Amino acid sequence: MWNRLITRWDESSFERRVVLLGGLLGGISLALPTGKAAGTEPQTLPPWSPGTLDIHHIDTGVGNATFVLGPDGTTLLIDCGATRGGPPASTPLRPDGARSAGEAVARYALRHARAAGRTSLDYMIATHVHPDHVGSPLMGDRRASEGYILTGLSEVDALMPAQTVIDRGFPDYASLPLTSAPFAVNHLAWLKARVKAGRRVEKVAVGSARQVTSRRAGAFTLRFVGGDGRVWTGAEGRSRDLLAPKSSWTPEATPEENHMSIAMVLAYGGFRYFAGGDLVADTHDGTVPWLDVETPIVEAAGRVDVASADHHGYFDACRPGFTRALDADTYVIQAWHATHPAMSSLQRLSNAWRGRSPRDVFITRLDPASRAINARFLPQVKSTEGNVVVRVHADGRYRIYVTDSRDERDSITSVSRERLAKLPRIA
Fold it and tell me: Nearest 5°: phi and psi at 78?
């Protein structure tokens, strides 16, 4: 939306208790203590274990950041935003505002990767070049020796080095040139410095399920179904252009950075997860149909179990085609602004029409103004603040944990009922 707003416990016994209670309560998320009560300590998220896929939507309050720890220990970070305006431009930085978003995300990822013996990232994906996804520099910020400012993804890279960075259009951004804004200039300077140092930066290969490879062959797959204005055709490594010829672009009918967002489907056995950055579907009330890049990309993605809401659930995304094609049982809205999510988007994501089966919706941070606007649908929302962690087992069972984002203790505030992946296992 930037362009528009310039005692660890035994896990198995715990899970048995949750399944029992979940049945008694009809599948409602279970509230757990968030602080000391009656002499008890808060329960904390059990560490990752081999064979488990963890997807962490990190609540920094200033942008998207998703850390993935694969079943084989593969580490991957999708975006690290760092909007810098503070309230009302964004919700307050967490965990406590003492550290930058990049440092907070790096510390979070390192803390959880420790269980796999990892201190680095195999992959870092920049879905598109906006401050709430890659970072925003300010005068006085720390600089790398190469001269660029450490913020967002570049700061994480300094603290938890990434072997490969995948970007939507590097090095030439031929499909749509980058803006000359400081955040874009800084992002490009970071990528160029990586290349000069012999470190890998790759342009997204839309249609490929081979650009991201697991440390153990076949542990999981990640296919890029969209990005840089292209969409997967259904054949390995093949894609087609979504945009009209540049010769036909007009002041009204011109794509923006959000249209170029990278979209992906992560699959582990029968479980599938979708993330699409800030894909949008606004056709200017039908005047410019090709500006809807969201719908063809989610149609290429197909049905999933869990999805991150496009563009924070903003008014120009998560349109009817989004939920129709993905048909997810759970949606995660990575929100940080009063306009996240739009009321219509929240209604659609939660399926909040009379007579319909509700869907689970988790919001990383709901701004007070958005809380007031969306009050009608909030009783159906499972969580409105905190880190949202999807934990998937090899047999397709998965559960959503929400942890307190106000500190680094990983205290559980709620746990969803257990679900089973609904699609056939991918060989």
Answer: -105, 105
